[in-house]
TrEMBL record:
Residues 29-57 have a biased composition (Basic and acidic residues). SUPFAM superfamilies: Quinoprotein alcohol dehydrogenase-like. Residues 29-63 are annotated as: Disordered. The lineage of its organism: Bacteria, Bacillati, Bacillota, Clostridia, Eubacteriales. It comes from the Bacteria. Keywords: Signal. Residues 1-26 form the signal peptide. This is DUF5050 domain-containing protein. PROSITE patterns: PROKAR_LIPOPROTEIN. It comes from Eubacterium plexicaudatum ASF492.
Amino acid sequence: MNKKKKLVKILLIFALAVFVCGCSKSTDEKVETQKEQKADFSEKEKSKEADTETKEDSIEESIVSEENIDAYQNSSSENDTDLGLKNMKVDYAQGELSEEQKQIIEYFSRDYMFVNSGEALQRYNNIFDHALIRCYVNVIKVISYEGNDYELLVSIMENSNETDDQLLNESRYMIIKGATQESRFIQGDFLLIEGRYNGVVQETVDGISLTVPEIAVHGGYVLQEDDGWYFYPSRFSMLEVKNIAKSVFGEDITISEPDPNVDPVDSEMPYYVCTLDNQSNAKFSRYYFNEREGSITDAEHGYQIEFAADFQHFFLVMYDYSLETLTLEYYDNNLNKIWKREFEATTSASYDFTKNNVYLCANNELYILNIENGEDTYDSSYVGNKLDIRKFNDGILLVSAEKSDAFLYTDLSGQIVWKVDAKEKISLISTIQEVDGKLIIQVVNNENMEYNEFEGELTGSNEYYYVIDRQDGTLIHEGTVDSVEFHQYS
């Protein structure tokens, strides 16, 4: 029982971290789950319904359209119809991505919505259909493996202290499809998966017809086990981090574990250390690469590195909190500085990038900067303090903390197109996704949030989902996902 309480706590903390900031921050809490499954399935008899295949084809077409590709190819600084880098996904871009570029996009992706209920996926289709989601699952059956491509029958974990009977409840079942690289998933594995929800499909397994959610998996990670305890998995290996680091700094680098005599050891946010062979530039000496969520931070000063949308350049983001200034520098992959801009009265900023422009909210102003020289493409405009900014093909989304005009959409020059209010103030943004012409925005109000460690419960935190038509600002859905139906951790 104590071990199960531990598991409740670890997954509760993880769920909070995902809902609150899109990051996972629970690792050295040990967890135990049921390791043996009592399922006894016969040999597979699988048949797909023709309408399901048609549905999958239409989903794929909706992700990358010819219109989006044309917009990318014909864009310019003044008519920037590019999709911002923050909105690019491994299955949603304006052109073909290399494996290296996909890895970089996945490293920095923060938009997966944490879900722990198959019922919620089916009930709240306006929110979840075709959206990016993250969840814990238990592998019930390996349906097929062809090369590295797999199809698995899994059970979604609604709570952490699951029993065999709960895991084998057909209402929990889902189909997941993806590809493994180094080692295969097997029956009984406990996984953290991230991917795109394809909706409900019909699947026949062992002669039994199932109507279940299906997820196209982008990344699957086996929970690490030690003597019956499970640990939150690393999303990126040292080799993968090294490849990403080479994209920034080139070949002359060394990747290592943190040195406890020099580096802070954070078990909840583990990282690798990248040391440049050439130490002549103090700005490019040693950097921390988080192994779970995408962040690249200077070890000495806390500077941040962000990739440019062409994957051939990068930005160095530097705050001076004593002077309240932001310095933005733009570099090529040979560490040559191309331009520099400074912004006063700024201690925080939000930004997005295309191959043409930088979109930056700083000191209550919206700046649109030409990527080639850092000069203003358009004059800056007052927009107030913003928590996030996203660049879409036809405009810019700005999200603020205040209830009034919380969601503001402008045209390509920064002129307001529509505004939508929020039900409560916004403390943090968990996800912003564009799905089938809709904006899916999950936010958190945690002004009164408290965590009772003894009871293992969260109180005072509210998650709200907003579904907004991107073209005209029509509010399609607003509200919470019911706690009973959603089976939140308790």
